[in-house]
Each structure stands twice: as C-alpha cells, then as structure tokens.
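Form 7-S
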Amino acid sequence: MSKDAKLHAHRLLSYPGVTLRHLEIFAKMMSGSTTAEVAETLGVSQPAVSVSIRQLEETLGLVLFERSGRRLSPTDTAVLLNEDVSSVMLALRGFSRRAADLSQGVTGRLRIVSTPPLGYSHAPEALARLYEHFPALSASYDVRRISEVYTAVQTGEADIGLAVFDGNRDTALQITPIHKTRMVALVPSDSDLASAHLVAPEDLKARPYIGLENDSIFGQVIRSSFRARAVAYDPRIEVRFCATAAALVEQGIGVAMVDPYSASSYSFPNVVRLPFAPAIEVSACVVTRRGIPHSSQLRTFTTLLKDVLHQKELSLPL
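Output:
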C-alpha cells in the first residue's frame, strides 16, 4: 500500500465504527449502482446495504446520499469523500492480488504500463529477458496514453511506467532517464529527399508532411523546431501517435518527424530514416512513485530495458 493510500485509510478508519465493509458498500454505491445491485454484487441483503450507508453517515456525521423514492443520489460531500475511498479500495485490491499470488507460490509480480513508443518497440524484449531471470514472475503489461501512465503509477495500479520525453517533466512522480537519442525524419523511399544527408524544416516548405497533434509531447517540440527556423508549420495531415505517422509515410502520404523508438518498432520497406535538424533530444524514461522501494523484479527489468536500448542503433549522426 502506498504512503498516500495509507494516509487515506488511516483518515477514514480512524473513526470508531467505520469498517472496510462500510467503505466497500459506499464505493459500490458511488459507481452508480442501486442498493439492490450492490446487494447482489456483494452477496448481502438489500436492507443490509441501506443499514451500512446509514451507519456510515451517522458515524461520520455527514449526509452522503439524498433519498428520492427508492434511489439514493450522492451528495457533493460524498463525491469529495469518494476520492479517499477510491484510493483505499485500489490499495486493497492490490493487497488482495498480491496475497493471492503468494498463496499460489508466485513470489514476484510486476505491473508495467507504457506509452506506445516503448510499449510497442523494445520493452517487450526486455520483458522476455526478465522471464529468464524470474520464470515464475506474474506480470501485467499495458500500453496507454501518457496521462493514463501517470495515473496508473500515481495510484499504485502500476509499479512502473515507461515513456519518452523531450526533457525534464514537472511531476510529483520520479522520472529516471535510461536512454537518450534524437528525433528522426521518415521519408518515402521514392522521394527526392530519400538521398539527402538530413531533413530540416526548410526542406518541407514545398513538400507534404505529416504532423503530430499539438497536445502531444512530440507535436509541441516539432512545432518549436519549425518556429526556430522561421518556417510555417502546415502539415498535410495530423496524427496523435508516431507509429501512425510511420504507417502513413509507408503509403507515400508525406514525410514525418518521429521518435526513433517508434521508427524502429515496425519494418517499413518503403521508408528511409534520416536525421532531423535542428536536433531534438528525447529520452526513454522510467516512471515510478517517489519514496516507494523497488522490487528486485522492477530493478532487473529497468536494467534489462536499458541494455536493450543501448544495443540498438537508434541515433543517427547529423
């Protein structure tokens, strides 16, 4: 259980008479369920659910639900309190999963969540190597958007997050760079640019190119590079993910500027990879919670991923 979750649990359970059962029923009610649905899910009677809600309200001295006929609607107070309760229930689910693993003889568990650049490229290779060290490892692996990676790590849903950044990020999480490289340009092989030494914004003034959405990390830095060269940024099409841009380059739609991790994820026979100038440095990073000890599985995975990345030819000389 994380430090924050412990604080939430202590705050709620410090009230005499408040039990985990009270909080479990409250959380189910806050998900939009009726008392009948909560009773069926938890295997208790409907009156028991109503009694539990009433007991919780009396113990806290708060009105948590407004009664309208047979329905209970959460008050603003309940919505605020639900933030604490959700953290407690999430920590308890993690406890239950870990206890179940231990009872089945699984002594190690690692929950990984990654953004697409690493999640679809080199992290799977590192995970495969990890199983050579921990054959009985129980793991979960998911690929999500960066905001969802942050949330998963912050709430304790994931032990480790993987992401690619263009520099330091202001976040309460611990972000540790493990590999540094530069953005590259992907060019259709039949383009006159395919034989160039590098690609710069000036080269794209009269050529179609694929942009990345402005609310993405890479979309912002690419726009900055065009401004630095006093070149208008006017892509033919915009996409969210670098892998999508690479697939469109393969179809000859235009040039794209992407991170080299995404560029190395797939084999595109009709695409040439070139350096992009001005150089935009990006780093593969590990995202973890501050103050939480790292398991041997997490430490080993980080080392293996670092090794995998340093073995690859990801950077191109300018």
